[in-house]
Amino acid sequence: MNHKNLLLLFVRAPELGKVKTRLAEAVGPEVALEIYIHLLQHTRQITEKLTADKAVYFADNIVDDGMWPKQLYQHHLQSEGDLGQKMQAAFEAAFAAGYSSVVIIGSDCKQLTQEIIEQAFDALRTHEVVLGPALDGGYYLLGMNKLYPELFRDKQWSTSEVLPATIYDVERLHLSHKLLPELSDVDHLEDVDFDWKADEE
């Protein structure tokens, strides 16, 4: 079977006061924006050489600022609804376009690497679902070979219940699944364990 892979990236345009709002409560909106831009740059670095098609889904408006060049990344706007509805719509569009393995990531995980994303696509050759658990009880990555709408429904998004509830649905549907290494998302000040000013070039 010839796997046609697509990586979905959910991002926000780097606008002051609109990104990393929980982090901004501790460090202020300016520093939160700088950290978010650093995370966007990291996400670009670990995805630009990936041998898969790539589609960036912007939260509010499509910003063509050079961060996501169109020769490497498709540009789309996230749909209406909660996070689950937005992700489901992106997966639906991907499968409708003919992709056979689809993986989604955000831009909040400094520990994420190109190799881990490649592991996710490899896992989808032998499993129906792949999940990247986050230390906060959510997930930094989700992949599947066909649409399972149940994984996007009835979830308390941005809480520690997301991963357990998702795994519960996966097991209830008797889907084979693989868990990737557990990583940390950056949502609070204690999550910032890196020098976010180090690679300004």
Automatic annotation (TrEMBL):
Write the record's keywords in alphabetical order, separated by commas.
Transferase
Q: Does the keyword Transferase apply?
A: yes
Q: Does the keyword Plastid apply?
A: no
**Identification of the protein by name:** Glycosyltransferase
Question: What is the superkingdom listed in this entry's lineage?
Answer: Bacteria
Organism field: Pontibacter burrus
Matches recorded under Gene3D superfamilies = Spore Coat Polysaccharide Biosynthesis Protein SpsA, Chain A
Molecular function (GO) terms listed?
A: transferase activity
Q: Which InterPro entries match?
A: Nucleotide-diphossugar_trans, Trfase_1_rSAM/seldom-assoc
**One Pfam short name:** DUF2064
